[in-house]
Protein 1
Amino acid sequence: MRRGIRAIVRMREAAPRGPRWMRAWKRLLWRYEEELREVRMVRAKEFRLGRTFLGRLPEEGELGQALAEFCREHGVQAGWISAIGTVRRAVLGYFDQQARTYLRLEVEKPMEIVSCQGNVSLKDGQPFVHLHIVLSGSDGQTLAGHLFEGTVFVGEFWVQEMIGPALERRPDEGSGLALWDLG
Ligand code: ZN
């Protein structure tokens, strides 16, 4: 992470936030204006559509793992993923932005997969799947979040491969997450 951004992150966490803090904060933002502008810039890489796969999720399999294995087997290095179906249980995640760590929510009952969206890209040179999910119970109430685990009852998926430059995840110091490296 760049020096200025590190200083900004440190300052943002400093307390108490009195008038002195505010003056120092403004000085810091002014000093690293250019660096900040660069960080706030929208970055992307261009891809074209590759192969399209439709398939069934393996019964009793682990949702994320099954899709990651599928992508590895078929050499899908980048793409979009969507799935619907049902799970026997799941573990969802909520990223605590202050603590920079995931809180885990264990859902120990059968749920519908109302929507499961995500992507595949590279991490440590291997296809890596990142999924978010919306689940619903017998009362129609939903639970949602980052998907850590999902034991499949049945399900159907769509994988849309995208062909282009390497899309690689790397550790991001600021957020504590592994984010796409877009140069
Ligand atoms: Zn996530």
Note: The helical segments are 3-13, 19-31, 33-40, 63-74.
Protein 2
Amino acid sequence: MLTLGIETSCDDTGVALVEDGRVLSNVVASQYEVHAPFGGVVPELAARAHLENLPLVMDAALREAGRTLDQVDLFAATTGPGLQIALLVGVAEAKGLATATGKPFLAVNHLRAHVHAARMANPDLRPPFLALLVSGGHTSLVRLEESGELEELGRTRDDAAGECFDKVARVLGLPGAGGPAIQKHAAGGDRRKLTLPRGHVKGAPMDFSFSGLKTAAVRAWETGDTELADFCASFQEAIVAALGKRVEKALAARPGIALTAAGGVAANGRLRERLEQLAAAHGSRFFPTPLPLCTDNAAMIAGLAESEYRLLGPSDLATPSQPGLGFRRPSVP
Ligand code: KG4
Ligand code: ZN
């Protein structure tokens, strides 16, 4: 079965072809330069860039996979969560192709797809397992049960972990994406130089909060005289510690349960190292997700679409895009 997946939920235009679980191609066009002057993603500009990039990315993905559109058995797109105007581009394209070719359409939940990316990369990773989803837009800790049921154990109450990296990197004046820039400058720095808050949510110990950490970090940078490397190492450590604290609780609650992480921030070397340590300390195994499947991509969209289609059949073509979708399956009210 050949599935074509489309991802346009935020600022990456992705198209991928997956055949029976195997990734044939996974092409992503980033819009980093489009939004950089504005200090954040501008939805209208994202949609316009998706419209321009999508045909090129689609051609490249088909060419790389050595397949043609009429060989595709299933068309899938992210229907949420994400920016409404950006989601619409990919959803319209997938529905249009499905209608024109008479093939089925599948609506994909972007959050579930990130978790699925970890499974695509790790065939030995089977439920039950814990997954830390950490990206520029989301931060959640979920547990996938053997029954297929997904429980969200905790989520951020304010900023996402990646957003916190990006906002602080901007204050530091670092060019490029925030997380990778901070990771780069943290190398060789002293992670114990500064103590920053880990973010505590009263009455909800598994939830995350990064806005206090962000404010404290910005104040420490603007009023202190910490070296850039020490600052970056300490700041990165505070985020890793905040994430690790909740993961540790979840590991302790279910001895031996497997652990994985996905989303852009899961590419962070120090976070991967810490999760590995925590899993080992609790008799669990950590399954890292390869970097191209951590950040936004369409292989995870096509991959999840294929499994959901086999289990539950196609989605209704009337399924709307759902910008505020949580971990539920799309189209479930
Ligand atoms: O999953 P993703 O590509 O897009 C969203 O769905 O948001 O994640 C992008 C986020 C950005 O905030 C970026 O700074 C962060 O992931 N990121 C990292 C690293 N690589 C990407 N954060 C920390 N360390 C990294 N190495
Ligand atoms: Zn994402």
Note: The pocket of zinc ion (ligand 2) is lined by residues 110, 114, 135, 263, 296 (CB under 6 Å).
